[in-house]
Design brief:
CATH class of one domain: Mainly Alpha
Strand content: 15-25%
Low-confidence stretches: 196-207, 307-336, 360-372, 405-409
Largest sheet: 5 strands, antiparallel
Number of helices: 11
Mean pLDDT: 76
Structural class: alpha+beta
Distance between the termini: 71 Å
Shape: globular
Length: 448
């Protein structure tokens, strides 16, 4: 063993890949464990970059960013444990994994959060971002997908994937890439204002670092969008009308102000705090994430303090001491139903009507379309990417298994794209688990 001194010892890291979780901006995430300790980890596997026309610059940049992010040892940062490449041009990153849902999972399930829970979330995320910003390491692509909530607890939230998300410059350098809302919704307006025309991969500067576009001000903007979505259930600029194309949302970011939170019934002071975080001018946003969290706390506390409580309510009026023990009832002609009586009557009628409607529905034979089987989709040639409802799936030699939303036979809308071939958009109705084969046409050739 003495011969090892001063030398290099190579050990093979072993990861047991368990479950694919989702795809986000040309990276697929898997649940995995580190052997032999069975420690839970995330495996972030990037799309084979050469297959999508990405130059080696992106590959080198991911590795440089992974080394920088590994320095972050603050509580709440899901540590970056390892990086490398499974094959040439196929990088991966391994990060710490905690139990519990992501913020995206929670919002999908609950829709919105109360102002109080949102304030706790903003405070926790600000406490994580502040030390990272002091070390010059903004996150860059802060999104609910990368926020873990152990046990669903806001006060224990953790942030994943510091610095290793793809920048807008890199996304636009990938030939055939479609900018989807989930890939760009964390970027601030100034990102889209810069000239980010696609560059020839062979002439990219070897020392360029697109992550210079990541900044604390951009993270504050992203934190503002997270607070907005938590309060309203929607992004201030992107919607679900076309989850495969972010162009309309990008135009809104560049030319419009976010809709007021008052339109959703949110207090004006909370709206002021969030709107400042979303300002199109970086210098007009909050100076730090902590400042934003402080302002949000004050706004929520002020709103809560202004709401009357049972302790603040005045006691019921007592009858005067010389009032008679009994009061003569008024005549029937003078009696008028009060507001309370009217409300009770309306409630009773609504209850009766609702039960009658339910009874009729229950006796009516069901005409609901039966739940369809899984759909198998393949493409000729193989290697396309399928976009559906804001998510993308790789399509190899094995058919892709798709199931309609809500387990009902509703139309499926798919978009298939492959470098060198024209995009194919398909909408079809499902009756009984069909097999669909899509023939892609080389670019420059017209479909008949």
């Amino acid at each position: 063993m003495d011969t090892l001194q001063g030398g290099m010892l190579s050990l093979e890291h072993q990861y047991r890949v368990q479950t694919p979780v989702g795809r986000h901006a040309f990276a697929r995430r898997y649940q995995a464990t580190l052997s032999p300790f069975d420690d839970p980890v995330w495996l972030h596997l990037y799309t084979p970059l050469e297959e999508v026309g990405a130059g080696p610059t992106i590959y080198r940049r991911i590795k440089r960013s992974a080394r920088r992010a590994h320095r972050l040892k603050h509580e709440g940062v899901l540590r970056l444990l390892d990086y490398g490449d499974i094959d040439k041009g196929v990088p991966f990153v391994i990060t710490e994994r905690t139990t519990g849902p992501t913020l995206q999972d929670l919002l999908d399930d609950e829709g919105t959060l109360t102002p109080e829970r949102t304030a706790r979330l903003v405070r926790r995320l600000a406490d994580i971002l502040e030390p990272a910003h002091r070390e010059g390491l903004p996150h860059g692509t802060l999104d609910p997908v990368w926020i873990q909530l152990p046990g669903g607890d806001m006060d224990r939230a953790g942030i994943d994937r510091f610095q290793v998300g793809l920048t807008l410059d890199e996304l636009r350098r990938i030939s055939g890439a479609v900018l989807t809302p989930d890939a760009v919704r964390a970027f601030p307006p100034e990102t889209f204002a810069r000239d980010t025309a696609p560059a020839d991969a062979e002439h990219e500067a070897r020392d360029s670092d697109p992550t210079e576009s990541f900044s604390p001000a951009a993270d504050i903007y992203a934190l503002g969008t997270i607070a907005y979505r938590a309060l309203t259930g929607v992004h201030p600029f992107f919607d679900d009308e076309d989850p495969t194309d972010a162009s309309e949302g990008i135009m809104r970011i560049q030319n419009e102000e976010p809709p007021k939170l008052s339109e959703f019934g949110i207090d004006a002071e909370i709206d002021d705090a969030v709107q400042r975080a979303l300002n199109r001018r970086p210098e007009r946003r909050w100076e730090s994430a902590a400042d934003f969290a402080d302002a949000f706390d004050r706004a929520v506390s002020g709103t809560s303090a202004s709401a009357p409580t049972s302790e603040d309510a005045p006691p019921p009026a007592q009858p005067p001491g010389d009032a008679p023990d009994s009061i003569e009832p008024s005549s029937a002609d003078d009696t008028k139903p009060g507001p309370a009586s009217t409300l009770v009557t309306v409630a009773i009628l609504a209850f009766v009507i609702t039960n009658i409607a339910w009874f009729v529905w229950y006796l009516t034979p069901s005409t609901t379309t039966p739940s369809p089987s899984t759909v198998q989709v393949r493409s000729e040639p193989t290697g396309a990417t399928v976009y559906r409802r804001g998510r993308s799936e790789p399509l190899g030699t094995t058919p892709l298994q798709l199931k309609p939303s809500n387990d009902r036979a509703i139309p499926l809308h798919l978009k298939l794209t492959k470098p060198g071939f024209a995009d194919s958009q398909i909408t079809f109705e499902i009756a009984d688990g069909p097999r669909l084969s899509v023939e892609l046409t080389p670019e420059g050739n017209s479909q008949e």
